[in-house]
Backbone:
């Protein structure tokens, strides 16, 4: 079965319990659809999901982007480091 | 050009030396340092003990290279160095350093501020804060207001 | 607070450390470096071999203390360090360093730029340039456009 | 006789041949008047004299400032160091 590599960081990494996993990809599936699927296993990922940013192959992408087998997709909690 | 996500202490002198050339009379550097006090989500200050920075390293370095390209397009400047630390940091330690060299200082100030503003707003780096108030303590992933 | 006219090399790390406190998350530093090429009075570039800086030391330090007071009045910032070198300098050597620390970086950028702009325009320091063009060479006291 | 201390820097120091000299002060004499007197001995000091700045006791002062005995007065060629 086709898969994508999903990367998690920060709070999302802690929710999922690992920084990376392979996830099954259906035909014509968007990044948003993959996130919805993941959220069934890891409900914490839906918290604040409107502010979650998506990267596909290490570049920012629209959440309606259609994924290809082997893509690296990352769902990013809002970027941190705002002290200065 | 130095573009770096690193778990080693930031060597600001190295960044400055990198952008100091015989053509660049003005060098501007920014250092972001871990503060003792930071506002919590309720706007009340919390005392910070340490931070843990985490990056999506490949994507972060790619975006930082993109910032360098934008600086070259906007100001024609190629002397830029950016380094962001990851891992455990104590109060007072530099977390990020940016240096820009230019023939004249006005554009060095502009480009350096543009680079750090863009880095802070777009580069995928998060931080976990170990904090305490009079009545509470914890460890929280902190959201950067600029990215909202 | 470091306010200094000195004939020793400028130690930028010392200036930055001076303004880095537990309350200051943002530190901005400016370094002015001797350039290889500088325009002559006719607007044509001349190659520079060395510079000799000369200061009215007591007056310069008093004016630099005044700049620090203005930065405190305008931005409420007290973490500022300014050092200007005098004597013989080679191409590539730092002639002046300014560092400002602030809780947030926007005001650190503003205050640092204000400090170096004001220093350059008002502080009594002159430089003699040893230069050469294809057809001519000499040593000239160079006028700072900003002070005219 | 009353005197002031006059300081010279950069091009002016070279014209005068020294960085400091004592200069006689008449009653109610201004800085501009002292400069005019000096220029009789050192004509080079009048070159660009409209851009010469005056300091009295290490502070910028109007050239019409009346000098007092013992004052330190400096006539500054335009400030240099404009490379950055």
Residues:
């Amino acid at each position: 079965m086709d898969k994508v590599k999903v990367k998690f960081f920060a709070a999302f990494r802690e929710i999922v319990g690992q920084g990376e996993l392979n996830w099954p990809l259906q035909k014509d599936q968007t990044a948003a659809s993959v996130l919805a699927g993941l959220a069934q296993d890891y409900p914490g990922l839906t918290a604040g999901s409107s502010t979650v940013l998506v990267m596909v192959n290490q570049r920012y992408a629209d959440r309606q982007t259609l994924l290809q087998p082997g893509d690296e997709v990352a769902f990013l909690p809002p970027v941190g480091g705002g002290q200065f | 050009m130095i573009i770096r996500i690193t778990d080693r202490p930031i060597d600001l002198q190295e960044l400055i030396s990198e952008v100091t050339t015989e053509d660049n009379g003005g060098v501007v550097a920014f250092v972001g340092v871990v503060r003792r006090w930071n506002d919590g989500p309720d706007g009340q200050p919390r005392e910070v003990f340490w931070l843990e920075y985490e990056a999506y390293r490949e994507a972060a370095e790619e975006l930082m290279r993109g910032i360098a390209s934008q600086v070259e397009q906007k100001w024609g400047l190629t002397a830029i160095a950016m380094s962001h630390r990851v891992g455990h940091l104590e109060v007072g330690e530099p977390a990020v350093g940016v240096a820009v060299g230019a023939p004249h200082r006005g554009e060095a100030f502009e480009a350096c501020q543009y680079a750090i503003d863009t880095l802070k707003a777009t580069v995928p780096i998060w931080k976990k804060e170990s904090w305490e108030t009079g009545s509470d303590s914890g460890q929280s992933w902190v959201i950067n207001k600029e990215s909202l």
Notes: Chain C has a mean pLDDT of 93. Residues 32 and 60 of chain C are 17 Å apart (CA to CA). Helices of chain C lie at 12-19, 57-75, 105-122.
